[in-house]
Amino acid sequence: MVFYSLIRIFVANMTDILIGEAHRPGRIEVVCGSMFSGKTEELIRRMRRAQFARQRVEIFKPAIDVRYSEEDVVSHDQKHIQSTPIDSSASILLLASDIDVVGIDEAQFFDMGIVDVCNELANRGVRVIVAGLDMDFKGVPFGPMPALCAIADDVTKVHAICVNCGNLAYVSHRKVESEQRVLLGETTEYEPLCRECYQKAIKEENERKDNHA
């Protein structure tokens, strides 16, 4: 009896998920935060649920992001989902016809046109799920992310853990010397730091530069 009761509960929960995912209206959901905070993992989780609900899904990523795979979207913990690499946000409208759910990874690397693209898709009744860095390595709002957060129906801010003190991370601190804003990298190039530890790191870097001047 207990076994069959558990089965009935499981089926009921799965039915709720299918109904809930299949009846979401056009909307924009943004998942943002620093590096190593689980943004892509959350994007993949939501896209998988949509697939489970038998919805037509398509996920896009910037063609320049080839860190783990040229085609798949891959999280830092190696979860992955098939994607379509593109160079311009305008391509999304051309490739997303007859799609119920559109996923966009690393949105900060796209042109500002991505904002209008997401709005147009949502107005068509498409659910749009966007993941990206909210700030660059200097703590400056990154690319189209502030505008995407502004027009989103829902914004989820996720946090990594500061590698120095264990508090919630605030920003992705760059460990290598480069002023180039777009510099693809992983743990060798970046580390998540809280606000206090980030300020200390910047102060130490400036002092080292002054000493070598």
What is the fold's blueprint, element by element?
Layout: H1 2-22, E1 27-33, H2 39-52, E2 57-62, E3 73-74, E4 80-81, E5 84-86, H3 90-95, E6 101-104, H4 113-123, E7 127-133, H5 145-151, E8 154-158, E9 171-174, E10 190-193, H6 195-212
Parallel strand pairs: 1-7, 1-8, 2-5, 2-6, 6-7
Antiparallel strand pairs: 3-4, 9-10
Query: Structural class, judged by helices and strands?
Result: alpha/beta
Query: How many helices?
Result: 6
Tell me roughly what share of residues is in helical segments.
Answer: 25-40%
Strand % is 15-25%
User: H/E series, N to C?
Assistant: HEHEEEEHEHEHEEEH
Q: Based on the structure, what is the oligomeric state of the protein chains?
A: single chain
Q: Specify the biggest β-sheet.
A: 6 strands, parallel
Rg to the nearest angstrom? 19 Å
User: Uncertain runs with pLDDT below 50, 5 residues or more?
Assistant: none
Q: Give the averaged pLDDT, no decimals.
A: 84
Topology, number of strands:
10
Name the shape in a single word: elongated
Task: Give an account of the 3D structure.
There is one protein chain. This protein is of the alpha/beta class and 213 residues long. It contains six helices and ten strands; from the N terminus they run αβαββββαβαβαβββα. It has helices spanning 2-22, 39-52, 90-95, 113-123, 145-151, 195-212, and strands at 27-33, 57-62, 73-74, 80-81, 84-86, 101-104, 127-133, 154-158, 171-174, 190-193. A six-stranded parallel sheet has the order 5-2-6-7-1-8, sandwiched between helices. The longest helix is centred in the N-terminal third of the chain and has 21 residues, at 2-22. The chain is elongated, with a radius of gyration of 19 Å. The model has no long low-confidence stretch (mean pLDDT 84).
